[in-house]
Fold these 2 entries.
Entry 1:
Amino acid sequence: MNLNNFSNSKPTFTLEEYFLGRTEAWGLFHDRFGNLKRTFKVDIQGTLSEDILTLDEKFVYDDGELDQRIWKIKILGNKKYTGTADDVVGEALGESEGNALNWKYKLNLKVKDSTIQVDFDDWMFLQDRNILMNRAEVKKWGFTVGVVTITFLKIN
């Protein structure tokens, strides 16, 4: 997809405005064959200090596993962002246009008793009623290993 194709799409998505405060999310992970492998719920608390948006994400998986990821997202201006988290390798790079945002990053993904490094190509699309839809392709060595789909709801 080309991010510029969304420049006139509404409603306009601004990452730091959407995630400031409380957000809830529900997600699915499908393997490369389309088999549903896992579902999860996420409670997210976003705080803004100058040009850093902190997202404290608390995950509850369908098998009872609990996890947490804390993103530190730097707002660069011109609809561009960088982000870090403990399991992100280096920096995530993000850019938005219209109602869309694209994140690209490498993640150390826990799989059973090991960790593998995968590439995420994450696309978010803001819809009406504060609903944000996300689709991320997960790749290893250039091959798709799965897809993560998440629906976010901004809590006022």
Entry 2:
Amino acid sequence: MSETLSRLTGNKSEIYQSLLPQIEALIGDEQDAIANMANISAALKEAFNFFWVGFYIVKNDELVLGPFQGPIACTRIQKGKGVCGAAWLKTEAIIVADVDAFPGHIACSSISKSEIVVPLIKNNVVVGVLDVDSEYLNHFDHTDLEHLTKLCQWFSEKL
């Protein structure tokens, strides 16, 4: 297992294309979901310098904060509440260009301006979400959606 990422350069798509195989190699045969979520969060934060990146895990019918990189965060989120809860309820990824315009947005930090949330789906059930926030408006696009969805699908198979 490597303790550092190989140099990540190029446009966003090229960085994802280089990063995702490195994440797969980093995780390797590790079976601990928490350790893997921690490393995925760190790798995404390091590669893209996102404001906040981490996981929420479904526990007792609510999302509970899991491993993350960034400032402190909301600990529990109800199904259907905020962007994370909406992605869980809809069982689909959500991109929000301006979090202040999202009805019911949960403001864990006033610095966050845009967000993407991708559900982790195992056996047709959402077991968690990957949440990524940016301090810039309209930061996330189809490239992020495509690659983060691919990452979450791969990771869900390991859970």
